[in-house]
């Protein structure tokens, strides 16, 4: 019996070794980029620890899923968007309130979550007759915003009843169970070998490039970002597509104005775009011209220029975006919340005058 | 994939189940194995107690609530077995026999078929203008009930027929019923085959244990690499079959055909391999069914433990192949219909069973069902043209029948087939190209390699049993290592074993 146990252990030992390395150094609880890129977690950056205070902030906003709709409700600002929108509700409440958050899980599908279709759906159903807001803040990440505009469904109907049903039915997808047989250990080892020589591994959607200066609280001068940021350049750098985007947003703004609501639009810049000036070797990397085109468009809504705010911030502060994630950090959430309410105040001053 | 499991039940199982390809089992098995053989120097009883405790733990990980049902079923058959053994009169013996049969089948009927019969009855009355609204009950199907119930039934029938004596040792009998490798998805063992092994002292045999590991490896390859990856594609087509047409639907059916074989025979290989690690030989459950030359041969090679169970405990008591043609036709239809129903509470399974009855009928009527008893192209590398054509026809018939097996309902099955027959639809051709590119050239090559290995190993108990014999050890072990690596590279699809829902 001993012989077979020893032989089997010996036979499996290379796989066991790879598995152990993956177990200790593959980050399952860190940022999405480390996970997607199978990047070795050197344990030097821990966003949860670094921003523990911000993540522990007491909830100071109301979610739409909490509303009972038994009486009319009034909020200063309702905000909705993609995964970025989950990051700054408390900060918004800190600078002005009360804040209503339209959770992504309640939003219009398909093209989940398409915030533009969602707003259309709420307008069509009379949602804003029951829930009164002064401002609607629509957020969308740069790499997806044109796609959402091209796929907007103005006929969407999101009644209060359907929201109640969605609240019951929609849940966050469960974390996938750790599989015994999974390619992860092999991908992990292979990708870290390849990253020594290349910026990207074939099966990974993550680029890992050197930067000219230290941008994050890590020892290395490295930047990791999603390949989607680059793939989207096809239409981000297309002035017609950007123009179409603005037309859609202007149309939505007009519809909201008919209800006495002001639209604010915040396009969360791609991490690649914000940190592009600091990439050491730009030979294979084209610059995004999205905000160049977008800022020149005529708008009848309040534009929250996140690119401008965050580009300036990156020059003086580290960790504006999280090193290991596609999303920005609480520092950026705070900066953007301040900017949003500065613009609201500015808009109020203009109206009063 | 259609299932009789409730959502909640499925969620519980996702967290606590003991699938053979999970971490839980990978830790469980070595611990039990080492403890088992450390106890081999002690009394046999300790080994059997360990097996029983391990088996109950194994089952409880699936659903602890139904452990009591399993124990009750075990107690019932043990007790009635003893009572039959000690019965003085035939009448008493019959009473105890029928008590056991009715209670066992009663549990099966309630847990598995209650809602099916109620809704079918309602649907039957509806066109007659009679509206009834019986309540269906929210029932969770106990894992393995179809399998351990049949274990118990075969035991009581064998005692009733005088083939075996009632087992007096409850521990030994419980191990027979609950032996964990076969507890949730077979093979369906016979008391005459398994009980003597349980009652006999097992001595560790290195070659047997190594053989067991080899069979486990091959079983895992069939399940994790072949079946689970085919499942992704089959599910893609079947779950959205109304959007596919022609050749694309044929491909979906083909991938399911491979999936169900890889899944079920893979599970059986793992079960047999695990049992061999403990010095126990289980009944072979699959013998390369897709190389069958006719449907009769197919049913001698597919799910052998179930088909032989129905043959011995239902077909032969009904008269078997004796008597007139009409009797033979009747018995064949009964067997296959019941077999279909055994698989699940859905008319699609019944139709699947009846289709197979229809396919086998000519050979029953003309008494050619025992024509192909040997192994196809035995001792040769390639089959003859006649054999190849026979295998192809048999394969096509089984693929056709599997469409019913896989479909959610009868309407979907018929819709699937009618759309599939539209071969000349250009959309179907482009869809099939998409399906094949989703599968990928590498995986398609792996399927081809898999069937090649199965073909070359068709004269063995499992395909790689003697593969590489005579070659240097480094070559053999490199081959095994490559198979192991492929489990990881192609794994991670997390598909349930199909037969767990039965």
Summarize the structure.
In chain A, 46% of the residues lie in helices and 13% in strands.
N-to-C terminal Cα separation of chain B, in Å?
Answer: 13 Å
Number of helical elements of chain A: 17
Q: Structural class of chain A, please? A: alpha/beta
Radius of gyration of chain B: 23 Å
Low-confidence stretches of chain A: none
Number of strands of chain A: 8
Percent of sequence in beta strands of chain B: under 5%
Which structural class do you get from the secondary structure elements of chain B? mainly alpha
**Gross morphology of chain A:** globular
How widely separated are the two ends of chain A?
90 Å
Largest sheet of chain B: none
| Strand/helix succession of chain B | HHHHHHHHHHHHHHHHHHHH
Distinctive features:
A: 353 residues, alpha/beta, six-stranded parallel sheet, two-stranded antiparallel sheet, 8 strands, globular, B: 502 residues, 20 helices, disordered N terminus
General description of the model:
The complex is a heterodimer of chains A (353) and B (502). With 353 residues, chain A is an alpha/beta fold. In chain A, 46% of the residues lie in helices and 13% in strands. In chain A, α1 crosses α10, α6 runs parallel beside α13 and α8 crosses α13. Chain B is mainly α and 502 residues long. At the A-B interface, α1 and α10 of A face α2, α10 and α20 of B.
């Amino acid at each position: 019996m001993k012989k077979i146990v020893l032989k089997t252990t010996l036979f499996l030992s290379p796989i066991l070794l790879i598995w152990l390395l993956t177990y200790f150094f593959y980050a399952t609880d860190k940022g999405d980029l480390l996970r997607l890129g199978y990047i070795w977690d050197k344990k030097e950056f821990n966003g949860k620890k670094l921003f523990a205070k911000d993540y522990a902030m007491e909830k100071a906003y109301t979610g739409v899923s909490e509303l009972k709709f038994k009486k009319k409700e009034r909020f200063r600002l309702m905000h909705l968007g993609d995964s970025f929108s989950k990051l700054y509700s408390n900060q918004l409440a800190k600078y002005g309130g009360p804040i209503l958050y339209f959770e992504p899980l309640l939003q219009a599908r398909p093209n989940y979550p398409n915030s533009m279709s969602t707003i259309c759906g709420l307008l069509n159903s009379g949602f804003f007759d029951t829930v009164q807001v002064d401002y609607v803040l629509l957020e969308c990440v740069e790499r997806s915003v044109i796609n959402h505009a091209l796929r907007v469904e103005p006929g969407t109907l999101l009644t209060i009843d359907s929201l109640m049903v969605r609240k019951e039915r929609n849940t966050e997808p469960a974390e996938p169970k750790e599989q015994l047989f999974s390619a992860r250990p092999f991908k992990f080892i292979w990708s870290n070998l390849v990253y020594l020589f290349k910026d990207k591994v074939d099966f990974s959607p993550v680029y890992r490039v050197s930067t000219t200066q230290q941008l994050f609280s890590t020892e290395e001068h490295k930047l990791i970002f999603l390949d989607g940021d680059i793939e989207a350049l096809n239409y981000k750098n297309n002035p017609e597509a950007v123009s179409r985007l603005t037309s859609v947003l202007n149309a939505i703004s007009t519809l909201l104005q008919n209800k006495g609501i002001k639209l604010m639009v915040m396009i969360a810049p791609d991490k690649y775009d914000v940190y592009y000036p600091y990439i050491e070797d730009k030979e294979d990397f084209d610059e995004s011209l999205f905000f160049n085109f977008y800022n020149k468009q005529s708008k009848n809504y309040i534009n929250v220029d996140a690119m401008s705010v965050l580009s300036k911030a990156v020059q003086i502060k580290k960790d504006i975006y999280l090193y290991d994630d596609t999303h920005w950090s609480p520092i950026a959430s705070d900066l953007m919340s301040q900017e949003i309410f500065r613009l609201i105040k500015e808009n109020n001053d203009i109206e009063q005058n | 994939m259609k299932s009789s499991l409730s959502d909640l039940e499925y969620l519980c199982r996702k967290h606590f189940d003991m699938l053979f390809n999970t971490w839980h089992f990978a830790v469980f098995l070595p611990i039990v194995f080492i403890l088992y053989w450390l106890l081999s120097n002690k009394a046999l009883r300790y080994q059997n107690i360990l097996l029983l405790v391990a088996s109950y733990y194994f089952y409880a990980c699936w659903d602890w609530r139904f452990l009591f049902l399993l124990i009750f079923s075990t107690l019932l058959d043990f007790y009635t077995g003893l009572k039959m053994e000690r019965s003085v009169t035939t009448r008493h013996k019959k009473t105890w026999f029928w008590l056991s049969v009715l209670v066992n089948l009663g549990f099966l009927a309630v847990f598995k078929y209650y809602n099916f019969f109620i809704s079918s009855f309602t649907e039957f009355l509806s066109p007659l203008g009679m509206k009834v609204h019986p309540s269906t009950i929210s029932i969770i199907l106990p894992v393995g009930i179809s399998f351990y119930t049949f274990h118990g039934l075969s035991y009581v029938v064998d005692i009733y027929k005088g083939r075996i004596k009632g087992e007096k040792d409850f521990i030994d009998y419980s191990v027979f019923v609950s032996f964990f490798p076969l507890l949730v998805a077979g093979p369906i063992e016979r008391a005459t085959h398994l009980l003597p092994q349980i009652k006999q002292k097992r001595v560790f045999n290195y070659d047997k244990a190594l053989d067991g590991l080899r069979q486990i490896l091959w079983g895992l390859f069939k399940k994790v690499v072949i079946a689970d990856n085919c499942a992704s594609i089959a599910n893609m087509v079947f779950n959205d079959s109304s959007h596919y047409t022609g050749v694309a639907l044929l491909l979906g059916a083909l991938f399911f055909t491979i999936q169900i074989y890889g899944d079920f025979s893979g599970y059986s290989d793992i079960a047999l391999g695990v049992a061999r690690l403990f010095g126990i030989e289980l009944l072979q459950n699959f013998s390369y069914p897709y190389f069958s030359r006719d449907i009769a041969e197919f049913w001698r090679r597919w799910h052998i433990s179930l088909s032989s169970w129905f043959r011995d405990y239902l077909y032969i008591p009904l008269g078997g192949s004796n008597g007139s043609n009409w009797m033979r036709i009747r018995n064949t239809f009964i067997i296959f219909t019941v077999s279909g129903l055994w698989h699940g509470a859905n008319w699609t399974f019944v139709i699947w069973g009846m289709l197979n009855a229809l396919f086998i009928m000519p050979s029953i009527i003309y008494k050619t069902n025992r024509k192909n008893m040997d192994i196809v192209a035995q001792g040769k590398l390639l089959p003859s043209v006649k054999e190849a054509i026979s295998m192809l026809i048999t394969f096509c018939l089984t693929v056709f029948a599997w469409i019913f097996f896989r479909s959610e309902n009868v309407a979907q099955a018929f819709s699937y087939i009618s759309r599939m027959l539209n071969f000349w639809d250009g959309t179907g051709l482009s869809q099939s190209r998409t399906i094949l590119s989703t599968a990928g050239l590498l995986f398609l090559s792996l399927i081809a390699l898999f069937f090649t290995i199965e073909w070359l190993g068709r004269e063995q108990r499992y395909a790689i049993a003697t593969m590489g014999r005579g070659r240097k050890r480094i070559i053999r072990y490199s081959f095994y290592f490559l198979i192991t690596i492929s489990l990881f590279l192609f794994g991670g699809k997390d598909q349930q074993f199909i037969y767990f829902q039965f």
